Amino acid sequence: MREGAPRRCRSRNPGCTHSPVSGWAPPSEEQVAEFLELLRDNPKQKVFVHCHFGHDRTGVFVAAYRMAVDKWSAEQALGEMRFFGFNGFWHPSMKKFIRGFPAHMRSVTGRRGLVEAAPP
């Protein structure tokens, strides 16, 4: 997010959540779990997920949702990411994170049972 954007977002929408994620590394297991909890706890709310370019980090979070909730495979989720502009060449660690997503979720302490992801 651009400097000052989280503050502007919260001033317009008290429900705004800012979760800073590196542009070159996947999110932490904790960040993905918090994102999925946010969606689970607010099922009737519209959610706007955004990063600077709108396809790499955003794609990882949406892919995690697709696998956890829609029961997509990792390859289906990666296909959607590519369709919306994800560049796996520049982000191999994000691609690896998505392919290992089910194991990531099972390893998050205290989050077991939050979601059941589809097999890779």
Describe this structure in words.
This protein has one domain (20-107): Protein tyrosine phosphatase superfamily (Protein-Tyrosine Phosphatase, Chain A), CATH 3.90.190.10. The mean pLDDT is 77. The relative contact order is 0.16. It contains 6 helices and no strands. It is an all-alpha fold and 120 residues long. The chain has helices spanning 5-12, 29-41, 57-68, 74-83, 92-99, 101-107.
CATH architecture classification: Alpha-Beta Complex
What would the principal axes of the Cα set say about the shape? globular
Portion of residues in beta strands equals under 5%
Beta-strand segment tally: 0
Secondary-structure element order, as H and E? HHHHHH
CATH superfamily: Protein tyrosine phosphatase superfamily
Largest sheet: none
Ends apart, CA distance between termini: 31 Å
Say what the CATH topology is: Protein-Tyrosine Phosphatase, Chain A
State the helix count: 6
**Unreliable stretches, pLDDT < 50, 5 or more residues?**
none
Overall pLDDT level: 77
CATH class: Alpha Beta
Tell me the Rg in angstroms. 14 Å
Number of domains: 1
Summarize the structure.
The chain is an all-alpha fold and 120 residues long. It has six helices and no strands.
Properties at a glance:
about 120 residues; mainly alpha; Protein-Tyrosine Phosphatase, Chain A; 6 helices
Topology:
Layout: H1 5-12, H2 29-41, H3 57-68, H4 74-83, H5 92-99, H6 101-107
